[in-house]
Amino acid sequence: MKLRTAGLLGTAGLLLGLAGCALSAAEVPPPAIDEAPGAKRATAVLAGGCFWGVEAVFEKLRGVKDVVSGYAGGSREEAHYEIVSTGRTGHAESIRITYDPSKISYGKLLQVFFAVAHDPTQLNRQGPDWGTQYRSAIFYSNEEQKHVAEAYITQLNEAKVFGRPVVTKVSSLDTFYPAEEYHQNFIERHPDYGYVVVNDLPKLEQLNKHFPELLSK
């Protein structure tokens, strides 16, 4: 099992990420266009760098029923960590969120995604991690999700919220493939792991600070 490490590069990457993302969390507005209330169960697939930290952020939210780390954008045959890590599969490290739209909307999930889960201005990287597998992406499963996501990115760019353009790609979801078991709930099981301490725990701190009303009790 090959896992990520943290060091000076990780610290530098985190600071760069915070400059574009978490430090602006309080200024990231909610989407002007959101999904209409509907079913009690829906899914969203998002990619924002290493799935460990992104998963941990969304697991804390009220109305979120389940979060799974995995891969989206490539084939079933190549949906394995060691292969995805080459950056040549088309996959992005992603998470699948199962949520209750009556308690938290798709747009609100996207607000958290852009505000604290990652830096949407970094192209094919997040902090110390480089490659297309770490790209910022929203994989939509229906036209409403596509509309909400594209409108929100336009809104954020026009408002110059981050000072740099949002580079998040909006793509149709083909299939989501769950990652290996050892990646699931990684931060809950390894809160003292070096990479987690440097790169992921600050995301949870920002979530607690800027979105306390969204946290699950």
What are the defining features of this structure?
globular; two-stranded antiparallel sheet; 8 helices; six-stranded mixed beta sheet; alpha+beta; 217 residues; Peptide Methionine Sulfoxide Reductase, Chain A
Number of strands: 8
Write down the overall mean pLDDT: 90
Spans with pLDDT under 50 lasting ≥5 residues?
A: 6-23
Structural class: alpha+beta
CATH superfamily membership: Peptide methionine sulphoxide reductase MsrA
Content of β-strand: 15-25%
Molecular shape: globular
Radius of gyration: 16 Å
CATH class: Alpha Beta
The biggest beta sheet reads: 6 strands, mixed
> Which range best describes the helical content: under 10%, 10-25%, 25-40%, 40-55%, 55-70% or over 70%?
25-40%
Number of domains: 1
CATH topology: Peptide Methionine Sulfoxide Reductase, Chain A
Biggest sheet strand order reads: 7-6-1-3-2-8
Order of helices and strands: HEHEHEHEEEHEEHHH
Q: Could you tell me how far the N terminus lies from the C terminus, measured between alpha carbons in angstroms?
A: 34 Å
So, CATH architecture?
A: 2-Layer Sandwich
**Count of DSSP H/I helices:** 8
Molecular structure report:
The chain has 217 residues and is α+β, with helices and mostly antiparallel strands. 34% of the residues lie in helices and 18% in strands. The protein contains eight helices and eight strands, in the order αβαβαβαβββαββααα. The chain has helices at 8-20, 51-59, 81-84, 106-117, 143-158, 186-189, 194-199, 201-210, and strands at residues 42-48, 64-72, 92-99, 125-126, 129-130, 136-140, 169-172, 176-178. The chain has a six-stranded mixed sheet, with helices on one face. The protein has a two-stranded antiparallel sheet with strand order 4-5. The longest helix is centred in the last third of the chain and has 16 residues, at 143-158. 45% of the residues are buried.
